[in-house]
Amino acid sequence: MVGAVPVGGGAPVAVQSMTCTRTGDADATLAQVRALEAAGCELVRVSLPTAEETPAFARVACEAAVPIIADIHFDWRLALAAIAAGAAGVRINPGTMAEKHVREIVQAAADARVPAASGEPDVPVAIRIGVNAGSLPRDLRERAETDTPGALVEAALRWAEQFEEWDFTSYKLSVKSSSVPDTIAAYRLLATKTDAPLHVGVTEAGTVWSGTIKSAVGIGTLLADGVGDTIRVSLTGDPVEEVRVAWQILAALGLRRRGPEVISCPTCGRTEVDIVGLAEEVERRLGSDPALAGRVISVAVMGCRVNGPEEARHADFGIAAGAGEGVLFDHGERVATLPEGQLVDALLELVRSSAD
Description:
Radius of gyration: 23 Å
Strand content: 15-25%
Order of helices and strands: EHEHEHEHEHHEHEHEHEHHEHEEEH
């Protein structure tokens, strides 16, 4: 458990992201946490880079409606401060700290209590043992030059074994790399050697465009293998986009769905309407309308007479367009034939009215 959110043990794959505001600006950080929550984020990581920002971090942890995980690097005292400030979890790379200080963090996490789900007993502060290819222990760096996945897994398992010896089991593991093949190989290997919950992601994946592709391939491959209990898509951009991509990955694999799924055809010489404009407008308006954004429905936007009618008929709602007009479908039934310029408004009104 990370606060009230179950991770591992057969629970649904949890979606998380990380704020990019200055943590000391509690108002801005809380605003971003709430935007992430509205997009479907279930766990939010917040960095605590300096002790001076601890009071703001404490306010965020107190006022946020989702569990807050402190992101800590190097300074073990900041991890202790985050735990005292109400963090539901902490992310550390134990290899960047002295063992005695890691043990202090573990002890503090074990002693602390975080509210769990309603009616359930409070839980310890969770710890993510985060191992990255760029920050391996010195004795594994040479191995990483020829066997990065093996070095990552060994580093993670060393610390997992140590945590177990300290009688602390509220941990999860991650072995991230910016290389998609290395990430996939490392997690596959790790999954054969531990039953601990796994936090899956491709670190430093890149911009929204390129990072989405790398994350979809890396995270999607692992989830399709049954590997992964919580995911974070790492993008250089608005973290809300990370959450949107994460949900799309889960939906594409049939693991979880949140919000409308837009099914649209590619453009070709048979297209007789502006299918690109229609599809983009439908997707934008569905996602920006609070009354519709969370509904689990399929919406087809098709632009020719070949596959359009059948695809639109099999979706919950759909448009099958051609020759400047289109047919509107409601759960397989034709309900109207309208000019191209009226299709999107009519489709959105149909979707809204079905929820009344």
